[in-house]
Every structure is written in structure tokens, then in C-alpha cells.
Amino acid sequence: xxxxxxxxxxxxxxxxxxxxxxxxxxxxxxxxxxxxxxxxxxxxxxxxxxxxxxxxxxxxxxxxxxxxxxxxxxxxxxxxxxxxxxxxxxxxxxxxxxxxxxxxxxxxxxxxxxxxxxxxxxxxxxxxxxxxxxxxxxxxxxxxxxxxxxxxxxxxxxxxxxxxxxxxxxxxxxxxxxxxxxxxx
Length: 185
Prior knowledge:
The protein has 185 residues and is of the alpha/beta class. It has helices at 17-34, 42-51; strands at residues 55-56, 61-62, 67-68, 74-76, 81-82, 87-89, 94-96, 101-102, 107-109, 111-113, 122-124, 127-129, 134-135, 140-141, 146-147, 152-153, 158-159, 167-171, 174-179. Strand 18 and strand 19 (174-179) form a beta hairpin.
């Protein structure tokens, strides 16, 4: 399905009318049934996300104050946790691997604009977060970034490029600080 229809933001919307109506419907559900559900009702929120096309694994904990742009671009593996205040700006695919933790206030941003284009054309790139990764509070991840399995990204870091698995990273821009021991099972 072709969602993006325009590359010049001066002459019209970047997304199709069908996409905008779908987001309107999701926005109403998100502002009411999703946002006002009690914290423990994770399965209810997972069901609502699936209703709008998200691929949701088992045991997923998405809290009610998470903002999601387009559930149909979202894939959450088994036992993923997404904390209140996280923004999943899923203009493109957003894939989060099993047992990953997305802490409160994290912003995963799959869309941006071409500042060299006079019309500031929108372009999108997918984001992938590996299994067993942890993005601490208020991390910002740019479009097109792949975060490796088991990576830990420190609070308020800004991730502008791929980060390797099983490392601890932090900063602006985020960089590897040290290796991380693999989890013991």
C-alpha cells in the first residue's frame, strides 16, 4: 500500500488520504481506549495495537502513555517493555526484538526531512532494536539506525548511527563506552 504520496511539503500532505484517515482512527482509539486504560491492562493495549495492524509478541508490556504514530508499522517481539512517555514515531518500520526494554521518554524517530530540498521533502528510514537491548530514559534514536542485540544505551543519549551488540553506549552522539557481559541464563 502506497502511503506516501508527495515529496514537496509546500504543495500538500506527504501521506495519502487513506493513511491520514487510518491515523485519525488510531488517534481516537489511542486518546481514549488506549491512554485511559489502567497500567496492568497490557493485553488490552496489545489487542488494540493488533487491531490496527501491529505485530505484537506474547507478554508485551506497552504502557498507556506511550505515543505511537502508526501501529501498522510496529513490530514488538515477545516480552518487550515500552515505558510511559515513550514516542514510537513509526512513519516507517519500527522493529523491537524480544525482551528489549524501551524506557520512559525514549523517542524512536523513523521520519525526517531533507533540509537541502526547498520543499523539505519527508523521508523515512526504519529503526531496528535488537533483542535484549535496553534504551534508558529519554534516549533519542535517529531514522535508519540499527541497535545490536544486547546493547545498552545510557539515559538521554542521542543515537545517530548503528551501535554494535553487547556494548554499553552513551553520549551525544552515542558511542561505545565498554563491552557488556552477555546475560546469564
